[in-house]
Amino acid sequence: MEVLALLLFAAGAAAAPAPAVSTSAAAAPETTVTLSAVGDIRLSGPIEEIAKKDSAAPSRAVKDLLAADIVMGNLETPLTKRGTKLAKTWNYRSDPRLLMIPKAAGFTLLNIANNHVWDYGQQGFLDTIKTLETEGWDYIGGGRDRASAEKVKLVEFDGLTVGFLGMTSTHPEQGWAKTAKPGVFYSDFGRLNEIVKRAKQKCHVLVVSFHGGTELADDPNDIQKAVAHAVIDAGADLFLGHHPHVIQGVELYKDKPIFYSLGNFLFVSPTPTTRPSVIVRATLAKGGVRRLDLIPIDTNWGRPKPASAEVAAVIREAINRMGALEARPDLLFFRTQAPPP
Questions:
Q1: Residue 87 pLDDT
Q2: Which domain holds residue 214?
Q3: Across the strands, what pairs with 294?
Q4: Can you give the three-state secondary structure of 286-306, one letter per residue?
Q5: What one-character-per-residue DSSP string does 238-289 give?
Q6: Mean pLDDT in order along the chain per 10 residues (341 residues)
Q7: Are 295 and 287 in contact (CB under 8 A)?
Q8: pLDDT tens digits, one per residue of 28-43
Q9: The domain that contains 263 carries what CATH number?
Q10: Number of structural domains, the chain?
């Protein structure tokens, strides 16, 4: 009887299916990079006064909200003590030592393609580039010739490559880079498609920073729309605009986010409508933009702070002018506190 039981046990064991063995390792978590982006930064004037005793003072109230792997803004000033002032209404110039202000705020990347970086001519512009390079800053949108101005900046994190291009449609024309002349990347429609496509071939995600539009206008103009659509058509994944000094609506074009204007950041204007602003915190992956946290702020005369409920409501309305928040609630998150890490 015992022999029979042993035989039956052995037969059953032999017939029992073997435990399943995974043929592949568990899928690794997706590599992501966070990018915080803001609008215009002017370091001279009121901002310089605020930072006179403490370079961190201007951005202290929002530094935690800015925190990300990459923090980018538009540097709307030459960094120089030299140069010849251009004949125009508004001219800015900042002492190179004032770079300590964005550094204290955590910025890592600056766009210089705009209408003020040439305010003190070629000398002032070249001083700006030299200072940025000497201080170890990453920058986009300008160079010692057209090739360097149009060069994509590549930032790598654990196998994920994010590319950045900076460009402008604004004047002065003498500040536009040429084949053998220093200047900024002018958004020439005749060459834009080729440049963006070439840049996208070098990275997984491509971000375009664009300076253009109509100052104080609630809505983007035709040039803004044309540039934004052109770069998305050529392969860009995210478009971040500035220059109007106010927030403009967000468009989803071919399901890619276009921020026509982020407004100001460290930039004091006498116009109250320029105070509402936004920090865009993008989560990027090889497939493109995974998440966008929109953090409303009040630029507060040179000391940005979290927006009050009343100001946040104004900001939300401006951002949603094209209906993007309702169209993609799974992508765009309007927040009144810091996003999750």
A1: 85
A2: 31-334
A3: 280, 334
A4: CCEEEEEEEEEEECHHHCCEE
A5: EEEEESSSSB--EEEETTEEEES-B-EEE---S-GGGSEEEEEEEEEETTEE
A6: 38 44 60 98 97 98 98 98 91 96 99 98 98 98 99 98 99 96 98 98 99 98 99 99 98 99 96 97 98 98 97 98 98 82 64
A7: no
A8: 789 999 999 999 999 9
A9: 3.60.21.10
A10: 1
